[in-house]
Amino acid sequence: MLIFSLNAVFATLFLMAARWAWVRAWPFLRLGWTGIQAETRKPDFRRNIVSRRNISESGRFLLGGLLWAAITLGAVAFGVWFVVQALAVIL
Fold this sequence. Notes:
Layout: H1 2-40, H2 49-90
Helix pairs in contact: 1-2
């Protein structure tokens, strides 16, 4: 029962961390993606220095969101692994 409890605790912690990381990732992904889309719809975005700067800043937001999303996927993977290990102890 101790092994089951430890696996359940770690599964809960990793799944809570995954939710927290997704809450952090989603605004960065949304801001980065919509910022890039809004600037690239302009006809002169390749020559306009302000548009290029805005695309660069939006790209940084998008990369930050992708990193948080990768952390989310890793935490979900560990959470599922600990859930499977807890179920294997019971069965």
